């Protein structure tokens, strides 16, 4: 028995096997797509070291 709550809408679910809920850990395809949209919009982010800005190689006098 697998019990959980959807991370988007907090709806509780209870299933016997993961095959019963193809959108796991979400309760529905809709909640799965909402989560994907949040990642694509940048609402979620994984913290890491700051990336220095790229420098234009033409300004450095270097040839590509």
Write a structural description:
Helices cover 20% and strands 12% of the residues. By secondary structure, the protein is of the alpha+beta class. The chain has a domain at 2-41: Erythroid Transcription Factor GATA-1, subunit A (Erythroid Transcription Factor GATA-1, Chain A), CATH 3.30.50.10. It has a two-stranded antiparallel ribbon. It is elongated and about 60 Å long.
Give the overall form.
elongated
Number of helices: 1
CATH fold-level assignment of the domain at 2-41: Erythroid Transcription Factor GATA-1, Chain A
Mean pLDDT equals 87
- Poorly predicted tracts of residues: none
Structural class given helices, strands, pairing?
A: alpha+beta
> How is the largest sheet built, in terms of strand order?
1-2
Provide the β-strand percentage band. Answer: 5-15%
Provide the CATH top-level class of the domain at 2-41: Alpha Beta
Instruction: Identify the CATH homologous superfamily of the domain at 2-41.
Output: Erythroid Transcription Factor GATA-1, subunit A
Q: How are helices and strands ordered from N to C? A: EEH
Distance between the termini: 59 Å
The level of helicity is: 10-25%
Main beta-sheet strand count, sense and barrel state: 2 strands, antiparallel
- Give the C-alpha Rg: 21 Å
Number of strands: 2
Report the CATH architecture of the domain at 2-41: 2-Layer Sandwich
């Amino acid at each position: 028995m697998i019990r959980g709550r959807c991370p988007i809408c907090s709806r509780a679910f209870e299933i016997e096997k993961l095959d019963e809920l193809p959108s796991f850990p979400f309760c529905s395809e809709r909640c799965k797509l909402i989560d994907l949209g949040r990642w694509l919009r940048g609402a979620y982010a994984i913290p890491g070291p700051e990336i220095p800005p790229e420098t234009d190689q033409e300004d450095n006098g270097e040839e590509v």
